[in-house]
Amino acid sequence: MTVARPFCAVRYDTSKVELTNVIVPPYDVIAADERETYFTRDPYNAIRFELTRDAADEASADYSEVGQALAAWRASGVLLRDDEPRYYVMRQRFTAPSGAVLERVGFFAELGLEDYSERVVRPHERTLAGPKADRLKVLRASRANLSSVFLLYQDKEQKLEAVLARALEVSTVANAQDDSGVEYSLATLTDSDDIEVIRSYMSASDTVIADGHHRYETALAYRDEERTNATSPNPTAPYESTLAYFANAYAPGSLLLPIHRVVKKESCAAPPTDAQWASGLSGWEQKSVPMEEGASVAALLEKHLLPLAAKPAFAADDAQGTLRIFWREQDLRDELVVRILEREVLKSVFGLDPEAIRDGAVSFPKSADRAASEVRTGDGAVALYLNALTPDDVFRVTGLGEVMPQKSTFFYPKVPTGIVFRDHRK
Questions:
Q1: What is the tally of structural domains in the chain?
Q2: Whole domain around residue 276: which residue ranges?
Q3: pTM above 0.85, yes or no
Q4: 234: how many CB neighbours lie within 10 A of its CB?
């Protein structure tokens, strides 16, 4: 069962700071040359809880200044701690790549930590040692959860929707907008009956990490350190939990976007010819779609690739004016198109094995426009466009104890740092 408890968050006092000026994207999507922008935007910008000002200082940083800033901002009243436990409902209103305006509504809670072996909180990808070591230094220095793990739960019948919507109607406490135009509303949920609805529903649910695997595994490592230092077991100790944001994977605004592939020029001397495509993809159907100059790749994919979402299918673009659509006349069933692409396309057509892919033979753009740009103006030889995976894919694969191939899906929008914090001290 998932333990998702109400908690007393530490939040910005919006009478003293403008929330728009202090929230930041997750640390792992902030480019090195973007750090200075956030550091200079506001003296209380949350980037001070996430990253060093200069990326070159990161390796040697002990992040003591993070703990000092947290204590100083709380003492000055810039950050306030709520006096009673509650859930924190967040709505994100955003424009999808299709141009549709969507909303995702979820909530922040205190997540009881469980080892992956318990199959309560499930990963969908593997992690790297370097980022976890860096995040552990931040957690040790601050003794606080300053950014959130992002978890998906299953609620096909939208049982929690009314509860979350009601909180936004009656108790919104802050609004903000980020640099990409995503609008945020934060509400507190204190009604005891509504709290019990959420707590009870989550206690019967398992969850999948959408984003924040490194943060979750860092919290586990910190928990194990603190358990070793403790004189006796304490299941209610702050280190036994972490900060998490929960969203319904089946809600309309829970967007799972595809991550495309671009075969780099140094790995592909020339785009495959018609004969090479046919030889490498025996048993696949193919059609060619003219691409006029300036045509929207996303629109072409929506028209020609999206209808094939239930089948093994992809599109190839070598910037020669034709979009090639490939598919097999069979249902995907339990297969993942990203696995098929790696096995039957990148390997058979381009001769790239998993080691070559890991070594950088392929890039992974998060938008079709970016993939197309890499082929036309960058170092890409061929863009391979994919349909998005589904929530069913994510829960099926992780339910089997498996992880997905590298860069399988992109959960959008991200959960920013700065909306709420969880201090381990009162």
A1: 2
A2: 260-385
A3: yes
A4: 12
